[in-house]
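Hi support team,

I'm opening this ticket because the web form for multi-chain structure prediction keeps timing out on my end. I have pasted the exact lines I submitted so you can reproduce it. The total is 999 residues across two entries, so I didn't expect it to be a heavy job. Is there a limit I'm missing, or should I split the entries? Thanks in advance, R.K.
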Amino acid sequence: MTQNIDQDVKQDVKHDIVLDPVVEITGDLVAEHGLSEAEYRQVLEILGRAPSLTELGIFSVMWSEHCSYKSSKKWLRTLPTEAPWVICGPGENAGVIDIGEGLAVVFKMESHNHPSFIEPYQGAATGVGGILRDVFTMGARPIANLNALRFGDPDHPRTRHLVAGVVGGIGGYGNCVGVPTVGGECTFDASYNGNILVNAMTVGLADAARIFYASAIGIGNPVVYVGSKTGRDGIHGATMASAEFDDQSDEKRPTVQVGDPFTEKLLLEACLELMATDVIVAIQDMGAAGLTSSAFEMASKGSVGLELDLGHVPTRESAMTPYEIMLSESQERMLMVLKDGSEDVAQRVFEKWELEFAVIGRLTEGGHMVLKLDGDTVADLPIAPLADAAPEYDRPWTLPATNPTQVAMPAGEPAEGVKIDLADALHRVLSSPDLAGKRWLWEQYDHMVMADTVRRPGGDAAVIRVHGSNRGLALSTDCTPRYCAADPLLGGRQAVAECWRNITAVGARPLAVTDCLNFGSPERDDVMGQFVGAIQGMGEACRALDFPVVSGNVSFYNETNGVAIKPTPQIGGVGLIDDLDLLVDMGFCSAGEAILVVGKTNGHLGQSIFARVIEENESGAAPPVDLEVERRNGDFVRDAIGQGRITACHDVADGGLLVAIGEMALASTLGARLHYPAGGADAAGFWFGEDQARYVVTVADRDVDAFVAEAVRRGVRVFTLGMVAGKDLTVGTDTIISLGELRIAHERWMPHYMAGGAQKGIEPGIEPGN
Amino acid sequence: MKAGIIVFPGSNCDRDIQVALGQSLDSLPDMIWHREATLPDLDLIVVPGGFSYGDYLRSGAMAAHSPAMREVVARAKAGVPVLAICNGFQILTECGLLPGILMPNTDLKFVCRDVFLRVENPSTPFTHHYEDGEVIRVPVAHHDGNYFVDPDTYQDLIAHDQIAFRYCDDGGEVNEGANPNGSLDNIAGVVNRDRTVLGMMPHPERLADEQLGGTDGRALFDGLVAALS
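Hello R.K., no limit was hit. The queue was backed up. Here is the completed structure from your submission:
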C-alpha cells in the first residue's frame, strides 16, 4: 500500500490538474457552495486558475462559517484563555487543563443544532459521537457527557417529536459507547420552534504528559486513515450548518450523517491502545468537513504539505468521486500521522478492534495538498492560504436596545401588601416546562456506567470521581437565554457566573469553561450585536472569576424564515474537588438545621420564571450581575463547605428563593419552616425574584454563629430564613405547602407531556397518559 | 481464587465489575479478550454488561458465538461458576446457559435508575450473603431487560427455585409498579438448575461503594469470594 503511493508520487511530478470536463464552474455553482463572489475571487487569486469541482468543494467547506469562524474570530480573541492550570487553550480539538497528580482534564462542548432539527435521533447521536472524538483524539478517556437542549414551545406540533428523538439519540449513542451522561439542561421557548439547540459536552481524563495534538510533522511520515469506511453521507454538512433554515429544510435530510456508537467504542479503545505506544505523531478526528478539514488542519498546524491517494481511502460505496470522498462526513473516522516505519504496529491494533486501517498518503514539503486518484492529480491546493488566510470579517453590529432596567414587574405587578398565593405560585413555577423535573430524560441516559458517578443528574453540578482517587470533578452547563435576549452583556456574564456558582455549590474549585455560542445570522447587525455583547459579558465574568475559556464552538445561522433564536451562549464548566468526603449535596440533611441565604435579595422579577409563568410577562430587564459580589459570595461558600460548616447547599437561579428551597426539600424527604420576613421587598419579588450571586445553605445549629461571623468579616450578606423541619414547607404561619403534592407536580409535567398530555401546565385532575 | 472477565468489542462494564469484584478479592480479576479460544484455569467467569457487537442483530446474539463463549459454555457445563450481568445475561440466554429471552422494555426506552430487588433464593454461591426475602437497592441500565419464558419453562424455574431476584418496591412487595421493564413475574435474575450460573439484569457492581450511594451490591461479591475461595 505504502509502496504504491511512493510510485504514484514519482509518476506525477507534473501536477496536472484533471478538471472535470463535464462540470463548468458557474456563478450558480459557486453560490450553491455558499461562497460569496468576493470569496470566489479570492479562490481564483490563490489558485491563479479556476478550481476543479473538488477544489471548489474544499474551499466551500473550509471557508464555511462552521469551519472558519470567519465572523466570530475577531471577537473570540477577546476572551481570556490563560491561567496557570491551562495546558492547552482554544485551537486544538478540545481544551486541556492540569488537575495535578499528573492528570489533565480534556473537554469541549459543540453544537449539532441543524442536523438535530432535521433528523433528531441521528442528529443528536452524531453530535455526541463528534464531541467524544474531539476529546479522545487528544489522548483522554471520556468520563462524562453533558448536554444542553433548547426546544421550541411545548405547544408547537413538532416539539414532542424532537424531544423524543434527541433524547433517544443522545442515550442511544452515549449508552452504547459506555460514557455516563451526567448532566445538562432542557428548556423550552418559542424562539427555538424552527431551530432547536443540541449542545453536547464531553469531559475526558488524560495523563498530563501524554496529550496528543493535531500538528503534522516529519516529511515522509505516513498519513493513516482509521475507523469506519467513507460513504456518501453528510456531504456538505458544514455548509448546511452555515445557512439559515427555510421551509425546504427537510430536503436536507440526506446531509445528516448516521452514527454507529459501536464503531465509536472500538475506535476509542483502539486509539487509546495505540496512544499507549509512541508511534503517533499527530491525530485529528474527521468531524465537520471530514477528510478535507482534518487533513488541512493537521498539515496547516505542522506547516507541511501532504499528498493523498484517494484510491486508498476505504469506501462504503463504489465509484465515489474525489469530491464525495473529500466532503463526506461519515462518522467514526480518524486521521493520523505515524512515525515512519511504525505502520505495522498501528495496523495490528486496529485489526484487533476490527476497524479499517489504510495508509493513504505521506507528508510532503512545499505546503501543498495534492490529491490523486488513479494516478491523476484531482486537486492541488496551497494549504496556508486556505486554512489560515480564510476570510475574516468584522461584521457590522449594533447592540440591541436592552429592556428597561427595572427591579420590579412593569405590569401586573403584585401590589405592595397584596399577598400572592405562595403555594399556588410555587406549584405552577416548579411544574412549568423549564423547571419541571427532567427525570424522564436522564433516566434514558446511562448516568452510572464507569462506576464513578458520585452525584447523579438533578442537582447543581454533576460530580464524577477521578478514577481510583478521592478527588472529583464538578461539571455543569449553564445559560439563561431570556436574560441574554433582554441584555446580551448581562446574559453573557450571568451564564458564566451561574456555571461558576453551580460548581461552587458542591464545594468544588471552578477551573475553566468551554463555550458553545448559538446565535442567529451574523449577517444581521442586531444578531451580531447580541454576539458582541454576550462575548463581552462572558469575557468580563471569566476574568473576574478566574474561569478561562479553553475550548468552544460557534453556531450561527440559528434562524428560520428570518426569525432568530434567543441568543444562547452556552457555558460548560469544570471544577475540582480535592476531597470527596467534603462534598455537599442540595438535599436537606437533618431537621433542626438552620436555613440561611447567602447574598442580597432585592426582589428582581424582570425576566424571572415567575414573570414568565405567573404574570406571562417577558418584557422585564435581566437581573444585574455584580461580579465582585459573585466572587466574594462564592469564595465564602466554597471555603465554608471546605471547613465542613455547610451541610447542604444550592445556588439560587431560575425561579428564585422559594424554588431553591423547594428543590432542596424535594431532593430529600424533609420540609422547612420559613420565617416570613417583615418589610423589604414585596412577597413575589422576595420569594421568586432572581437576584444573582445567591446560595441557600443549611448549617447545624452549633455552627451558625461562627458561619455568620465569618460572613460579616468577609463582607458577605447572610440572613437566617428558617430551619429544616417537618415534612412540608411552612411559610409564615398560614401557608403550608405539601411536599408530596409539590413532588407530584414537579415530576409529572415531563412524562405527562411526552405521553401527549396537557402542554403548558398541568390541569388539576388530569392523569398522565391521557 | 482466580476470576476472569470476558471482554467483547462493545463491553463497557468490564472495568466496573473488575473494580467491584476486586474489592472482595486480593487481586484484580483478569481481562480475557473474546477471541481467546482457550481460557486459563478460573474459579469464576464473569460475562459483563455493555453492548457487545453493538447489540446488532439482537442483544447478545453475536457475542454468544465468539470463541471465548464456546469455552465459557464448556466450563459452565463442567461446573465452573459464571456470573452474567445485563448484556452478559442476554448473552447467556442466547447461548443457552440460562433459559428464556430478554425482550425490549415494554415502553421501548432505555432505563437507568435504582430499583429494589427481593432476594428469592439465598441458597446459591451468589446470594448466600443475603437473607431470604431481603430487599436490596441496585441500579438497572438497559433497553432489553424484559425477561420472558414459556409457561412450561416458567413452571420449571419455579419448581427448581431458579428465580434469584425479583423487582419489588421498597417494602419488598412484588408488583407491576416496581417492574422497570415488563419482565415476566418481575424476574430480575435467574440461576441454572445447578445454581452455578447467575444471570441478572441489574448491576450490583454499581452500588458496591459508599461514595457512589450504596453498598447493597457488595454482599454478592463478598459472598462469591467466600463460597469459591
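A quick check on our side: The longest strand of chain B covers residues 111-119. Let us know if the file doesn't open in your viewer.
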